[in-house]
Amino acid sequence: MTRKEQSEAILRTHHIKINPNLPELGKTEIKSPEVLLRRALTALLTAQVAIDAAEDNEVAASALFFQGILRRFGLEQELTPDEAKFFALASPPFAPIPQSDAVQMTWRIEMCLPLFWACGLIPGELNYPDTTADCTELIRSINECKDFDALMQLVSMRPANEILDHADLIYRMDWACVDALIKNEPVSGGLSFDIVAERHRGFNWMISAYDADNWDDVKAHT
Question: Are 196 and 129 in contact (CB under 8 A)?
Answer without folding.
Answer: yes
